[in-house]
Structure formats: structure tokens, C-alpha cells
From TrEMBL:
This is Luciferase-like monooxygenase. To bacterial alkanal monooxygenase alpha and beta chains. InterPro entries: Bact_Lucif_Oxidored, CmoO-like, Luciferase-like_dom, Luciferase-like_sf. Pfam families: Bac_luciferase. It comes from the Bacteria. It comes from Arcticibacter pallidicorallinus. The lineage of its organism: Bacteria, Pseudomonadati, Bacteroidota, Sphingobacteriia, Sphingobacteriales. One of its GO terms (cellular component) is cytosol. GO terms for molecular function: oxidoreductase activity, acting on paired donors, with incorporation or reduction of molecular oxygen.
């Protein structure tokens, strides 16, 4: 049995700058900044933004630009990527962008790296061009990034200015055992996308811990789990709010993607049994409920997994209800 107490667990935010029905990305960005300021007050440790492309409901495609906007509008919370999809970019460009961010906002920038495209194959081809097999170079590209950030790179013919000599924490993101092996071998912290890819979560974090090699960056394995959180004053209100994310994931399952929809009273009118099963499987690691239910379920999750940090993502249609959800979630850890 794991003995971690909830008070000892840092809690953080993953934001996709979700676009809700009837609004625009401009609204989403203002809401993201409003949320970042709110969670900073509530004691959240970090605020990460995710790189996705060609998705109507996700406006965080220019991730490093949005990180600068959020970091510039907050004071203390760490801001970073959850993640930058590294095969979409040349490591030098990532080093320069995050070197710029870390120069503007010292000791506040995290660089989470993923190897998936963050999109469909056709869009990935439009982004990557000749680099379509870039995922195979993921460990090598991380090492190149580390070299660009190192002080030892000062006499290289290719340098990251700014970026060189800056201490920017690198995280490996993943949704499978492949990423766990990379993070373990390189001695880097590991963030798992259990909020949409729960299947290999327990296997991957076990593999990561068993194979972890200490590095100058990290002496012991560190696991961050991203989960869905829909909190409200009552269990029934939280369940109703959760129908928005269920509709969003149903769009992923069926290929009929749309903007985030308002909650409904009954999902039975919307999905069939197969869609329901597929969505509920993807949402395995979701915490939906009022304060007491949330506290009990989160404690059970921490005891079962031994995670070092929990990152919450909350697809909630109403902005005020979303702010309130993060407020309730923070109280779980107090």
C-alpha cells in the first residue's frame, strides 16, 4: 500500500485552450489566462499547454506562443508544454523558442516532449514533410536538445541563442510503454496521458520505475499522471457537466469532431452502446463528482499508483463552472 498523503502531492493543470460552441479561439485564450491566474492563487504548481493540430475544439496549436502569453500574465506558476510534439519541429528551433521563454520568465518554464504528431496522419505530413519518420529519432532529438541547452555547446558550429546554458527542465510525455523506456533510460521525469490513453498507464509507470537510470537532472523516478476532472458542489451537477467531455470524446470515436458542446440531461439520446463503451474506456481515469467523492477517489488513485504529481484537465462548457471545478479540486489536497 502506498503511504503518500494528498497534502504531499503537487497538483497542476493541462489546458488545450478548448473552443466551446458559440465562441472563438480568442475567447479561449482570454479564458485560459483567467484560469491560469485563478489556479496560481489556488496553489497549483504548473500550467501546461498541449500541441494539437487540425482539431476544431483545440486552439493551443502554436503552443510556445501561448506559453509566453500565459507566463506573461502570471507571476509564480510554472508554465510549459504538455507537450511539444518534438518530431514536428527541428530541435534547434525548440531550443531557441524555449530559450527565449526561459530568458523572459526565469525558473518558470517546463519543456514537456512527446513523439506523437498530435494530429491525424494527413496533417502530420503537412507539418513534417520529409520528416514523416521523425518519431524514430525521438531519443536522439532529445539528446540534441540537451546539447543545445548545455554550457558545453559554446564552441559548437551550431548554437541555440538564447537557450544555451539555461536550466530548462525536460519531461518525457507518453501514452505507451515506448515513452516509459525513453524516460527511464535518460533519467527524466515522466508524464503519462492517462486522461485519454489509459490502457498502458499502470504497465508504463511500472516499467519506468523499474528501469530508471539516475541522471544529473533527476536522482529518482518522478511520475506525473494527467487525469480528467469535473468537479461541482454536488455529484449530480458534476455528472451533468461531464456530458460535455463525453460528447467531445464521442466526436473522437466517431470522427465527427466539433466544438465543445453544452451539457445535456441525458446521454442516452445521443450515443449508442458501442460509442458509450469506447468513450468510457478512454475516460477511465476521470474524477467526476462533488468534494467528498473527489477526495475519496483521488486518494484511492494515489494509493494505487504512487504518482508524484497529478495534472488535471477539465473540459467544462461554462467558464465559471470550470473555474469552480479547479477550486474544488485544489481543496482535495488541503
Amino acid at each position: 500500500m502506498n503511504t503518500k498523503k494528498l497534502q504531499d502531492i503537487p497538483y497542476s493543470v493541462l489546458d488545450l485552450a478548448t473552443v466551446v460552441e458559440g465562441q472563438t479561439p480568442a475567447n479561449s485564450f482570454r479564458h485560459s489566462l483567467d484560469l491560469a491566474r485563478k489556479v496560481e492563487e489556488l496553489g497549483y504548481k504548473r500550467y501546461w499547454l498541449a500541441e494539437h493540430h487540425n482539431m476544431p475544439s483545440v486552439a493551443s496549436s502554436a503552443t510556445s506562443v501561448l506559453i509566453g502569453f500565459i507566463a506573461g500574465g502570471t507571476r509564480t506558476i510554472r508554465v510549459g508544454s504538455g507537450g511539444i510534439m518534438l518530431p514536428n519541429h527541428a530541435p534547434l528551433i525548440v531550443a531557441e523558442q524555449f530559450g527565449t521563454l526561459a530568458s523572459l520568465y526565469p525558473d518558470r518554464i517546463d519543456l514537456g516532449l512527446g513523439r506523437a504528431p498530435g494530429t491525424d496522419q494527413l496533417t502530420a505530413m503537412a507539418i513534417r514533410g520529409e520528416n514523416m519518420h521523425g518519431a524514430h529519432h525521438f531519443p536522439t532529438d532529445i539528446k540534441r536538445l540537451q546539447q543545445f541547452f548545455s554550457e558545453d555547446n559554446f564552441d559548437s558550429k551550431v548554437r541555440a541563442i538564447p537557450g544555451e546554458g539555461l536550466d530548462i527542465p525536460i519531461w518525457v510525455l507518453g501514452s505507451s510503454t515506448d515513452s516509459a523506456r525513453v524516460a527511464a533510460a535518460m533519467g527524466l521525469p515522466y508524464a503519462f496521458a492517462s486522461h485519454f490513453a489509459p490502457t498502458y498507464f499502470m504497465e508504463a509507470i511500472k516499467l519506468y520505475r523499474e528501469n530508471f537510470q539516475p541522471s544529473k537532472d533527476l536522482q529518482e523516478p518522478y511520475v506525473l499522471a494527467c487525469v480528467n476532472v469535473i468537479a461541482a458542489d454536488t455529484d449530480s451537477e458534476a455528472e451533468r457537466l461531464s456530458t460535455s467531455i463525453k460528447q467531445l470524446f464521442m466526436g473522437i470515436v466517431t470522427g465527427r469532431r466539433s466544438l465543445l458542446q453544452p451539457p445535456v440531461d441525458n446521454m442516452e439520446d445521443i450515443w449508442n452502446i458501442y460509442e458509450e463503451q469506447a468513450v468510457n474506456q478512454m475516460l477511465t481515469y476521470s474524477f467526476v463528482g462533488g468534494p467528498e467523492k473527489l477526495r475519496s477517489e483521488v486518494l484511492s488513485f494515489v494509493e494505487k499508483t504512487g504518482v508524484n504529481e497529478i495534472m488535471a484537465t477539465s473540459h467544462i462548457f461554462d467558464h465559471q463552472a470550470r473555474l469552480h471545478s479547479y477550486e474544488i479540486f485544489s481543496e482535495v489536497f488541503s
